[in-house]
Design a protein that fits this description.
Layout lengths: L8 H4 L4 H9 L3 H9 L3 E3 L17 E3 L2 E2 L7 E6 L3 E2 L8 E2 L6 H4 L3 E2 L8 E7 L2 H8 L7 E7 L5 H9 L14 E6 L2 E6 L6 H8 L4 E9 L2 E2 L9 E3 L2 H5 L2
Parallel strand pairs: 5-6, 8-12
Antiparallel strand pairs: 1-2, 2-3, 4-8, 4-14, 7-8, 9-11, 9-12, 10-11, 12-13
Bound molecules: uracil.
Uracil (URA) binds next to helix 7.
């Protein structure tokens, strides 16, 4: 069984610079203090950092010009707003990484994608194996969406979505899904695949149009109701282990 070490900078910082450096670089506090006083350590926004400086989560620490990080992987949930893209780099739009403090941005990638106009739960991590489990078709991790449609959703639509739908240009139907009505124009749809624009195309195949799409849950991880669009928090150990 693999042991997952969760370190969230938001929960461990503020932390003294000498303590942070000792933990990150495997040094004694004395060695760390010597490097700091000798000028080998730089901290964003601090002209001459002292050993007792209390680090903020957005401050990048460098030792001999290299970024210093606490050991262990990062696991975050983000409430993605509209007009933000799920990639690490985009010349035209804000990315999900732009919503994180610099020190975290350098380390994580989004595990799976949402369209630019889709809102809701995005998971970010530095752990490639964990994100593979989330996105691999073999693991069939359920993703639950609240789907708002232009036209009313019929019982036949719900049954067809649940049974599987042959999408335009594809030769195998979507896997069975869970489809429940929320109100006349809104449903909750849980799918285990991640085909291109899957939810929008499933509804399009029923002659409807998605006008609002919001991801509420991935596996057992539910988007935290306390997170406003654009906000993030570290996952708990239970949330990480549940994937
Ligand atoms: N399906 C879509 O069509 N869009 C998303 O962003 C996610 C799932």
């Amino acid at each position: 069984m693999s042991v997952i070490m969760v370190v969230s900078l938001e929960t461990v910082l503020p932390m003294r610079l000498d303590y942070f450096l000792a933990h990150s670089a495997g040094l004694t506090r004395k060695e760390a203090k010597k490097l700091i006083s000798g000028g080998a350590v730089t901290v964003a926004d601090e002209a001459k950092p002292k050993a007792n400086l209390q680090l903020r989560p957005d401050q990048v620490v460098m030792l001999h010009g290299e970024v210093v990080q606490l050991p262990g992987h990062r696991y975050l949930m983000l409430h993605k707003p509209v007009d933000v893209v799920c990639s690490t780099d985009d010349p035209e739009h804000r990315t999900v990484l732009d919503l994180l403090p610099a020190v975290l941005r350098a380390q994580v990638h989004p595990a799976g994608r949402l369209d630019r106009d889709t809102t809701g739960l995005v998971l970010l991590t530095s752990d490639g194996q964990w994100s593979h489990r989330l996105t691999s078709p073999n693991h069939a991790c359920g993703k639950c969406y609240r789907v708002t449609c232009a036209d009313p959703v019929s019982d036949e639509d719900l049954q067809a979505l649940a049974d599987g739908i042959l999408l335009r240009g594809e030769d195998s139907p979507t896997l069975p899904a869970l489809a429940e009505r929320v109100n006349t124009h809104t449903l909750r749809l849980t799918i285990t695949e991640g085909r291109y624009h899957q939810v929008k195309r499933m509804l399009a195949a029923r002659g409807n149009k998605v006008v609002g799409l919001h991801r509420e849950q991935i596996g057992d991880i539910v988007l935290d109701a306390d997170l406003a669009p654009g906000e993030f928090r570290a996952l708990t150990e239970e949330e990480v282990a549940g994937i």
